[in-house]
TrEMBL record:
It comes from Sinocyclocheilus rhinocerous. This is Cadherin domain-containing protein. Transmembrane segments: none annotated. Residues 25-127, 128-236, 237-318 form the Cadherin domain. It is found in: Cell membrane. GO terms for biological process: anatomical structure morphogenesis; homophilic cell adhesion via plasma membrane adhesion molecules. PANTHER family: CADHERIN-87A (PTHR24028), PROTOCADHERIN 1 GAMMA 11 PRECURSOR-RELATED (PTHR24028:SF296). GO terms for molecular function: calcium ion binding. Residues 1-23 form the signal peptide.
Amino acid sequence: MASFVMWHATALFMILFRYSVRGHISYSIPEEMPKGSIVGNISQGLGLDLKRLKSGKARIFAGDNTEFVGLNKERGILLTEEKIDREALCAKTTPCALHLQLILENPMEWYDVTVEIIDINDNAPSFPKGEITFEISESAVIGARFMLENAIDLDVGSNSHLSYSLKPTDNFVLSLQSQTDGDRNMEMVLQKVLDRENKEQLSLLLTAVDGGEPQLTSTVRIHVTVLDINDNPPVFNQRVYKATLPENTPKDTVITSVSASDADEGSNAIITYYMSSTGDVNDLFMVDARSGKIILKGSADFEKASRYQLNIQARDQGGLSDSCKLPWVALYSYACLKRDLKTSAYIVLLSLSVWNTEIRRSSQNVFL
Ligand SMILES: *[C@@H]1O[C@H](CO)[C@@H](O)[C@H](O)[C@H]1NC(C)=O
């Protein structure tokens, strides 16, 4: 059967070839019209009356056998045989047209009929992914670019011409750069540095709008996870730690505790406490590396010293530093944050006064 159709079609072309084309007519119709919609009055268009259509056994010949358009001889008109989807028929090819022949017998005549299928904006843009995720270090510099995939619109012409917007624009702006191949590179560009301690997760909305009438839009959410860098030093929770130490305090007594916190996360926020004092102090006191407790190791003798200064460092695993001023010292004790340039760590100075009834004697402050 198929070979018969092939033979039939070939034979018909051979016959047609011997007759000249009598005329040509073009129509254009929008895609997606319901079955049975009028394409045009071919009787009127070609100046063939209804009788001639009948006597000539007028018929429409579509080369590829797809019957999108049919002839109603009684009314002299061309009708759609089915709903025509331009995207299925032509994809991105423009113009999209059906090339048909109107064939008549007695005498044999044929007419070229072109039916152009006009795009309607029946396809919204669509993004290749349901959502976009980025993990961006808070150390990313201003101007850093992050590639975004373009949306796809199956329509053609202005119906597929997309414009984009990105919101909010606090940290990122959208950049579209036309390429030589006509494509556009879409990127989001960092315009304000990220700060994980301020905002760990960012949610942005990328919108694509086509140029159709009415416009169709599509959106995709962009999730940005801000990765930590060790940009925060540990900070002691108090600027001044005060402690007094009664004479004859037993060994292993916890005198006080120091505590620092770090706004970073993970290992960048793990704090270890150290004593970096010199001399006697190291024999008398220790700091618990994890808890920050200051513990008496030996026995403090008021006669030897009425005041001790302990240098205590809080270090995170990145060893960040900052500075502070040494405040005026309280009568009994004082503590302060001080920058240690060598170790690049936070230091708290804890001054311990060995308490004695003769208060005046304990007021011989020793400064660093
Ligand atoms: C088409 O045109 C022919 C000739 O002008 C006319 O006789 C016929 O009524 C028309 N058909 C329709 C459906 O308008």
